[in-house]
Amino acid sequence: MAAVRIGPKHQVTIPKEVFDALGLEAGDFLDAKAEGGRIVLIPKRLAAKAPAPRLSPAEQKILTRAKAKIERIQRDLLHANGLTREEARVAAKAGLIDPEQMYWWTEEWQKGERAAERNVRAGRIRTFSSAEELINNLRR
């Protein structure tokens, strides 16, 4: 264990071996707390350090359209259009949507979402309080 000195502004220097072992970088944040007469410093990851993907100028234009469509879907599902497959691909590449959920944002899928939403709003959807109640309803 390395000894460190507290500076005039309450600063301490983290020993290099500890700094390297934790994969810390200058500018990183730490949570600090007193615990059992000790000072505990815990690295705080505010955001992933993954590099942003490079988008071509054409992909940047596609991403702009995709962002607008995604915002519209989130705001007003009934009157929104889904993404094209290309818009979904670029939105996933940029980290705007989960790559495994790209299908959900496509126009093809959104048609079904809009139909379901219309049925819910029109009261054509029935809910059941138990699986048994659902099964009995299906048997009728």
Write a compact overview of the structure shown.
The protein is mainly alpha-helical. It has helices at residues 16-21, 57-75, 85-93, 102-105, 107-121, 131-139; strands at 29-35, 38-44. α2 (57-75) crosses α3 (85-93).
Model description:
The chain has helices spanning 16-21, 57-75, 85-93, 102-105, 107-121, 131-139, and strands spanning 29-35, 38-44. By secondary structure, the chain is mostly helical. The chain has 2 domains: 1-49, Ribbon (Pemi-like Protein 1, Chain: D), CATH 2.10.260; 57-121, no CATH class. It has a two-stranded antiparallel sheet with strand order 1-2. A hairpin with a 2-residue loop joins strand 1 and strand 2. Helix 2 crosses helix 3 (85-93). The chain is elongated, with a radius of gyration of 26 Å. The N and C termini lie far apart (74 Å). The mean pLDDT is 91.
